[in-house]
Amino acid sequence: MSKKTYFFLILILGSLTALGPFSIDMYLPGFPAIARDLNTTAAKVSQTLSGYFVGISLGQLLYGPLLDRFGRKKPLFIGLAVYILASAGCAVATSVEQLIVLRIIQAVGSCAATVASVAMVRDLFPVSESAKVFSLLLLVVGFSPMIAPTVGGYVTDAFGWHAVFMILTLMGVAIFVATALWLPDSYKPDKTLSLKPKPIIANFLEVLREPQFYTYSITGAIAFAGLFAYVAGSPIVFMEVFKIDGKVYGWIFAFLSVGFIGSGQVNTLMLRRFSSEQIVNVALICQAVIGLTFLAAALAGALTLTSTLVFLFLFLCCVGYTYPNAAALSLAPFTRNAGSASALMGAFQMGAGTLISIGISLFEEPSLIPMVAAMAGSATLALIVLVVGRRFITHKVEVQQGADAGVMH
């Protein structure tokens, strides 16, 4: 594969992966404006974020079998079309209830891009390169939290929150065109796979019987849920607790994203000396320690804006190491069922994020505690799942950059 081809594949796959996060991040600075315009509260508006997570969780399971049965591109095109129409609908919503429903539909469309991009990493690149590729995708995805909230803040201030969803609509159109023109067919449709409920469930169960999959996918999902806690809670924490306006919040969000993105890229260098398993172990221990310390400081009332930023930055750095390696280890055992495996992995991830975001939205009074407690709890629980789950792995597919995938006993 030439460097030019490699670059364009990473760029398109990264754009597909970034569509969902961009849809999550860009409208966050508009929470107060949406609440005022739709005559509701910021807590109620945050339910549109929870609705998005619900849509992605359900959509992951829908697209997994479709991607294996019909190939990658046809289901992807359908999902992108749904996303474009739903985004346009969000731009003209007249009530928070309408916005919640449209956000669920928008998410169902966008997760086709997410599931397809993850599955295509397994299609297009060898197992030994997968952790590196996931880290590179994280770089492209990283531009979302760096750019989206900042742009969203200025767009909302100048044109209103409706304009944000019009921009997302245009992004969907652009990605649809790029995918149609330049993304290759990476997987031949498997006509032996049935779309009836019983065979689909059996296929998912086959994936779930793999100890390496359920250990690292659940570990990664719960650890990554700490990021969703931050995304769901940060508009309230920064704009209502610390009284920061939408534009400044966008810049803070961009700054904190540097930790998440930067660690993801340092991960590619770390993989030259350490295995994905070793990196996950250390990063998750650090994530739990930072989260629990953060919670202790919050409960003691000792957090300032500066210390909050420091804790968030360090926590997100750990997530940047945990996610790509856990994802690579989860998918390493699969070839035939890669689409279903990536769908289940995404469903676990978004399911955990949904529960955390819904929990945070239930607290009407602005406070740091719900967000911080959710972050600390997710990291600690993920560490426990990893320790327990590893005991069941007897046939492990190792992932290490620069070496062929091998089996350890």
UniProtKB/TrEMBL annotation:
How does this chain sit within the bilayer?
Answer: Multi-pass membrane protein
Q: Which GO terms describe its molecular function?
A: sodium:proton antiporter activity; xenobiotic transmembrane transporter activity
Domain of life according to the entry: Bacteria
Annotated Pfam families: MFS_1
The reply on keyword NAD is: no
Q: What is its main location?
A: membrane
Which family is it part of? Belongs to the major facilitator superfamily. Bcr/CmlA family.
Q: What is this protein called?
A: Drug resistance transporter, Bcr/CflA subfamily
Q: Species lineage, top-down?
A: Bacteria, Pseudomonadati, Bacteroidota, Cytophagia, Cytophagales
